[in-house]
């Protein structure tokens, strides 16, 4: 993770670098720093903790210079202290890095043996020394970088500043994203187009292994064999306005509330209301020929995939394997050529998911990607790109991206069912109708916000919370538990309701709230039986169901949350709302940092 930005500018850069970091803070926020060249010397300002600390530091001691680099960190090697904060520097060079240099230990030992002194515990500092050594021996910046890059194993996006070349920066990427921005007499580097949005919309995406020399006049890009290459310049279309919270206290609340709108926006590109059909973008492979689907994702996106597994199997009768990305590659999965591998990601940059995608490509799978950032690495490597239109998601806990993923996955499942001959036009029309109703039902779910806020104090004192659900509500239980632990730091577990008796029931007492997700329907009775097993042991239940379900089983619950009665296909979209709101209000009641919870980051670009 980590976010990086660099500017070779006409004017002072410190403020603009800081602004860029604000837009990158979602990538990590445990320390930050900037460096520039001024009067023939490299100057740095770094600070532990949130960006506000670095901003104070820059007020106390302004950083002059028209060429600079900056970094916001999510620690991998070395604690989040000031000395481990980037940029890392020698007298000759300073650099910022996103990724992990996996072979840093032998490189560090080699450098120490040559008499180099290290100031940090990071993996990154070896790169600064390796480049610096060559520069000190008389190499040009280009020669030095060209020699060092092949020595680095792992993943990196780098931006490097040179004391003796105040009008130049060098960037490089392998595994971690890096873009070049073209301005008027200025050139930029950044982890994403969002970081550069106020500076320019003209963006070139570097390919794997590319490195680039940027000056005020422009950029010269080289591929991994050091051959000069051109990369297309596109208009990013990302808004330069600072993303704001509207009239909400947190981005997470704003994003929960945006869901009816962004889900409707997403559905618009997958539903043809007039024809009562589900539509996918054009593809150059035969969807009807797909015999097996492999879904791979991380975190909340993985839970969207788990829900979709029910849909692909129920509607299209296509068997689905599903894995978290960090496990997928290393278990050497059996992948028959021609299978469909489906990757789900908000950012499109999660390192584990991207590595899994490349593994699947090498195994001759067709690559489909459900992604929220259409310019991301995953989007660019897809055979079938299925964008969600959630807009930028800033809160670290994913909310609107999740429900938009569900909307796309439901459309994909219906489409697959149709081409497989398993969905009649009437059934398809019914699906289109119910999906179109989802935004209104989500609005209805949002109207319970105040009630949920009022009951948050019942959960806030708990040390452990259990979430139970059956069928497609089981992954929702997992997502509920993830949301709660991410932002309130309460230990929470999601369990298949019927599996509770095989272990977690031992935890039940009156101090462990149990959240039961049970819309009325064929599985309701069974889930309610499990709920009664909890109540019989003194457990305190919060039941999330519809009016019918609450009338049948609400008595004896600590609290109930009433959802509208909806078609099973859109249950996950609607029930996501109370699950998110509950976690949100508990976190607010506990006073935690809702949008930037400790130790987490929005997109994890290290394996
Ligand atoms: C991080 C975030 C999660 C997210 C996961 C996958 O862990 O904190 O909220 O679900 O990454 O991210 P992706 O961008 O691939 O969906």
From TrEMBL:
This enzyme's EC code(s): 2.6.1.16
Signal peptide: none
Domain spans labelled Glutamine amidotransferase type-2: 2-217
GO terms under biological process: amino sugar biosynthetic process; carbohydrate metabolic process; fructose 6-phosphate metabolic process; protein N-linked glycosylation; UDP-N-acetylglucosamine metabolic process
HAMAP family noted in UniProt: GlmS
Domain SIS stretches: 283-422, 455-597
GO cellular component, one term: cytosol
InterPro entries, per the entry: GATase_2_dom (IPR017932), GFAT (IPR005855), GFAT_N (IPR047084), GlmS/AgaS_SIS (IPR035466), GlmS/FrlB_SIS (IPR035490), Ntn_hydrolases_N (IPR029055), SIS_dom (IPR001347), SIS_dom_sf (IPR046348)
SUPFAM superfamilies documented for this protein: N-terminal nucleophile aminohydrolases (Ntn hydrolases), SIS domain
Database matches in Pfam families: GATase_6, SIS
Protein encoded by which gene: glmS
Stated name of the protein: Glutamine--fructose-6-phosphate aminotransferase [isomerizing]
Catalytically driven reaction(s): D-fructose 6-phosphate + L-glutamine = D-glucosamine 6-phosphate + L-glutamate
Its job: Catalyzes the first step in hexosamine metabolism, converting fructose-6P into glucosamine-6P using glutamine as a nitrogen source.
MF terms (GO), sorted A to Z: carbohydrate derivative binding; glutamine-fructose-6-phosphate transaminase (isomerizing) activity
């Amino acid at each position: 993770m980590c976010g990086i930005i660099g500017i070779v500018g006409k004017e002072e850069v410190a403020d603009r670098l800081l602004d860029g970091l604000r837009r990158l803070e979602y990538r990590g926020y445990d320390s930050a720093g900037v460096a520039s060249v001024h009067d023939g010397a490299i100057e740095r300002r770094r600070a532990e903790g949130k960006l506000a600390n670095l901003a104070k530091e820059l007020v106390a001691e302004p950083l002059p210079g028209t060429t600079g680099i900056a970094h916001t960190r999510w620690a991998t090697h070395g604690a989040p202290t000031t000395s481990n904060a980037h940029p890392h520097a020698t007298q000759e060079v300073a650099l910022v890095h996103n990724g992990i240099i996996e072979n840093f230990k032998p490189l560090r030992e080699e450098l120490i043996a040559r008499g180099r002194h290290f100031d940090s515990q990071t993996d990154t500092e070896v790169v600064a020394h390796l480049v610096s050594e060559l520069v000190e021996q008389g190499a040009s910046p280009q020669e030095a970088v060209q020699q060092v890059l092949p020595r680095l194993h792992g993943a990196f996006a780098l931006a490097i500043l040179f004391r003796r070349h105040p009008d130049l920066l060098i960037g490089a990427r392998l595994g971690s994203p890096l873009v070049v921005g073209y301005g008027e007499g200025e050139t930029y580097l950044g982890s994403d187009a969002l970081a550069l949005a106020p500076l320019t919309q003209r963006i070139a995406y570097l390919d794997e292994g590319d490195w680039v020399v940027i000056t005020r006049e422009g950029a010269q890009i080289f591929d991994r064999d050091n051959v000069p290459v051109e990369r297309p310049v596109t208009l990013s279309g990302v808004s330069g306005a600072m993303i704001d919270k509207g009239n909400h206290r947190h981005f997470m609340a704003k994003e929960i509330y945006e869901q009816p709108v962004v889900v409707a926006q997403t559905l618009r590109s997958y539903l043809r209301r007039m024809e009562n059909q589900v539509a996918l973008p054009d593809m150059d492979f035969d969807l009807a020929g797909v015999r097996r689907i492999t879904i791979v994702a991380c975190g909340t996106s993985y839970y969207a995939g788990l829900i979709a597994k029910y849909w692909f199997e129920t509607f299209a009768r296509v068997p689905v394997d599903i894995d978290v990305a960090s496990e997928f590659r290393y278990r050497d999965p059996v992948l028959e050529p021609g299978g469909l591998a489906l990757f789900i990601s908000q950012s499109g940059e999660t390192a584990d998911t991207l590595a899994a995608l490349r593994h699947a490509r090498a195994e001759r799978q067709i690559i489909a990607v459900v992604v929220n950032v259409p310019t991301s690495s995953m989007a660019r490597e897809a055979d079938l790109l299925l964008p969600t239109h959630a807009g930028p998601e800033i809160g670290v806990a994913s909310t609107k991206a999740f429900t938009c993923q569900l909307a796309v996955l439901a459309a994909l499942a219906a489409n697959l069912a149709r081409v497989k001959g398993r969905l009649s036009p009437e059934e398809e029309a019914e699906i289109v109708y119910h999906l179109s109703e989802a935004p209104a039902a989500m609005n209805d779910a949002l109207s319970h916000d105040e009630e949920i806020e009022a009951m948050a104090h019942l959960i806030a004192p708990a040390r452990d919370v259990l979430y139970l659900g059956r069928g497609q509500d089981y992954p929702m239980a997992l997502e509920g538990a993830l949301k709660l632990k991410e932002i309130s730091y309460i230990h929470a577990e999601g369990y298949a309701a019927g599996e509770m008796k095989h272990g977690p029931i031992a935890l039940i007492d009156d101090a462990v709230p149990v959240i039961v997700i049970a819309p009325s329907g064929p599985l309701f009775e069974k889930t309610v039986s499990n709920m009664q097993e909890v109540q019989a042991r003194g457990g305190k239940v919060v039941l999330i169901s519809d009016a019918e379900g609450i009338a049948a089983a609400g008595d004896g619950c600590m609290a109930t949350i009433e959802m509208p009665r909806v078609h099973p296909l859109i249950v996950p979209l609607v029930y996501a709302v109370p699950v998110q709101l509950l976690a949100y209000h508990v976190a607010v009641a506990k006073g935690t940092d809702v949008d930037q919870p400790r130790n987490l980051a929005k997109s994890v670009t290290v394996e």
